[in-house]
Design a protein that fits this description.
The complex is a heterodimer of chains A (about 50) and B (about 400). Chain A has about 50 residues and is an all-beta fold. In chain A, about 0% of the residues lie in helices and about 15% in strands. A 3-stranded antiparallel beta sheet of chain A has the order 2-1-3, with no helix packed on it. Chain A is globular, with a radius of gyration of 10 Å. The model of chain A has no long low-confidence stretch (mean pLDDT about 95). Chain B has about 400 residues and is α/β, with parallel strands linked by helices. Chain B has helices at about 55-65, 80-85, 90-95, 105-115, 185-200, 200-215, 235-245, 265-275, 290-300, 320-330, 350-360, 375-399; strands at about 5, 10, 15, 20-25, 25-30, 35, 40, 45-50, 75, 100, 120-125, 130, 135-140, 150-155, 160, 220-225, 250-255, 280-285, 300-310, 310, 315, 335-345, 370. Classes of the chains: A mainly beta (about 50), B alpha/beta (about 400). The interface between A and B is small, with 6 and 9 residues.
Chain lengths: ~50, ~400
Amino acid sequence: MERWVCTICGYVYDPKKGDSDNGVAPNTKFEDVPEDWVCPVCGAPKEQFSKE
Amino acid sequence: MPVVEIKKNIYWVGVVDWNLHNFHGYSLAPKGTTYNAFLVLDDKITLFDTVPEKFKLDLYHQIQQLIKITDINYIVVNHVEPDHSGALPFIIEKSQPEKVFCSTMGQKALLSHYHQENWPLEVVTNNDKLSLGKKTVLFMETRMLHWPDSMFSFIPEDKLLISNDAFGQNIASSFRFDDEVNLDELLFEAKHYYANIILPYSALVQKTLAEVAKQGWDIDMIAPDHGFIWRSHVKEILAAYQEFSLQKLKPKAVIVYDSMWQSTEKMAKAIAEGLQKENVSVRLMSLKTYHHSDVMGEVMDAAAVICGSPTHNNGILPLMADFLTYMKGLKPTNRIGAAFGSFGWSGEAPKIIASILEQAKFELPVEPIKVKHVPTHEDLKKCKEMGETLAKAIKQKVN
């Protein structure tokens, strides 16, 4: 599973960890993260992420 | 304000904004502030950061006391927010520098602020070294501390960290250094600044402090872009940032409220009594008296934020809506919350507050309390009990 980086603030989405504070379970592929999810650091939308 | 040599051939050339009271329109700064800029005299004369546009002539004059402005070779932009880059177009036009250094996001932000494609921008990133002659500049990107473009510049020969907004404080003064004022006052203002500007990025502060340690930067002076320069209390401000970013909490509750006919205020006082009985320290703050930024200064080390508003037109009073929106954005973590308020006929306010606190990820160990019109002795007893229950939850969390 690929890690994705927020191009605004550098936050790395690690699919192994997910983002449990915001309802994304561990082992969730970035593609499967809900479309309304935003970067937990800077609030940027999903389309601002690129593959690491 | 005279220029001050802070290290051999490095000068503070900033300006003091004595009359500022409101910082960027969201945080009060009753003591004013400073916009610090630094001029390094070396083979390549380099200006670090500038000041707001309205102070551009003051900065020009400061620089001219040391050199001719056309002598500037390089400009480093550590942060693009207009209080540090507002004078940049004017300074670039006057000085015609060879290069303007900024981070990747800094380049984007400079272009979208000033729309000048012809500026000689050069992007620097982590581990880049820039030689000025005898002195060197090392860069570290500090994205979201507190803008995407933010970066640190470190001059190892002088053990000087130019830290943009991190470690800043809003105080206007004729003194420049941390040992020329009362340290407690300085740390209080640093905390107020952190609470209102840096708090949402606490996890990144942790990362940045770790990165600075990993790089092995030997720092004996930290020069932020606002307020005093740290030279005698570098350890203390670094320790304070550790503590702030870990959000270490005290057995303390902030009771923040608004009231129309003092019924909600009576409830606030009764809840405070319950907390006091259990030896939890309490800070009562009416939003008619205290600005949301001052409340946040107190929330910084408080384990609980207890919010009260009467029901007004089926909702909460506007000052409480303002405060809750502001606090939610600053993302304090690991806090206990509670809601209370009086009402006339419908009584929605405490539930609305509780739901906003829940969205902001507060733990709510007690049900919201509402009281019709004016509280009875029995109602106030219930409020006291609420305070006692909250005190127990607070002590459990803090210990």
